[in-house]
Amino acid sequence: MKITNSKLKITESNIAIIILAAGASTRMGRPKQLLPYQGCSLLRHTIETAMASVCKPVVVVLGANAQQIYSEVNQPSVTVVENLDWNLGMGSSIRRGILSLATCSETIDAAVITVCDQPFLSPEIINYLVAAYHANGKPIVACQYADTLGVPVLFKHIFFSELATLDETVGAKKLINKYYNEVFSIPFPLGVIDIDTPTDYQQLQKNQGGQEIRSVI
C-alpha cells in the first residue's frame, strides 16, 4: 500500500514524540547535541522540528553531559527526562522515554522515537509518519533510507511494554525487524545522513548553503 497526497490526513490524536539525546558523542569528541546548526544547536533544531509537528508531548531524554545540554531543552512545552544509565546503551534511553509517558494526563495512543543527529528531519516527515499510521492500520511506521528501515519510527502503544524492556545495547530497530510484517514504511532519503564524526559535521556545514530539505509528501 502506498499513501498518496489524497490519502494523507492528519487527525487529532495523542501521539508523543521521544527525542533520544543521551549519548556521549565519543566519535565526535564533543557533545554533538550542541553543534551549531541553522542558527541554533543540532538538538534545539530537532526539538523545534518536533514541536512544529502534530505530536504532543515532546519528550527529550538526556544522559551524558546533561547539565551542559539542559539549557537547550529547558522550556515549558518540552518534557525533559534524564537517563542515569545512558552508558549502558540506547535501549536504556528508549526505556526512560517510554516510561515517562506514564505520567501524562491523557492516554498516549502511539509514540514516535527519533534521534537528535538527523539534521534533515522535518515536521513534514514526522506528520507523514502519523498520517500513515492513521491511514494504513499498521502498528509500526518506520522511515526508509539506504535500503533499511529506521528512525524516526512510530510505535503503537501495544509495543510500549516491549520497548520498555529492550536490552540496553539495542535500539528500536530490533522491534522493527522482529515485527517486520507489521511495519509500514515511508520514504525519507535524507534520513541516511546523521552526524557522528567531525567529518560528518564538516560535510554538513559544506552542504548547508546549497541543500534544502524537501518534503516527501
Coarse structural class: alpha/beta
Q: Please trace the helix and strand order, writing H or E for each element.
A: EEEHEHEHEHEEHHEH
Radius of gyration: 16 Å
Helix run count: 7
Shape from CA axes?
globular
Strand order of the largest sheet: 5-4-1-6-8-7-9
Q: Give the number of DSSP strands.
A: 9
Which stretches of 5+ consecutive residues score pLDDT under 50? 1-11, 210-217
Helix content range of the residues, please?
A: 25-40%
Largest sheet: 7 strands, mixed
Classify the beta-strand content into a percent band: 15-25%
Give an overview of the whole structure.
- The protein is of the alpha/beta class and 217 residues long.
- Helix content is 28%, strand content 22%.
- It contains 7 helices and 9 strands, in the order βββαβαβαβαββααβα.
- It has helices spanning 42-51, 66-69, 90-100, 123-136, 160-163, 173-178, 198-208, and strands at residues 15-21, 36-37, 40-41, 58-62, 78-82, 110-115, 140-145, 148-156, 183-187.
- Strands 5-4-1-6-8-7-9 form a 7-stranded mixed beta sheet, sandwiched between helices. The protein has a two-stranded antiparallel ribbon with strand order 2-3.
- It is globular.
- The chain starts with 14 loop residues before the first strand and ends in a 9-residue tail after the last helix.
- Mean pLDDT is 89; it is low at 1-11 and 210-217.
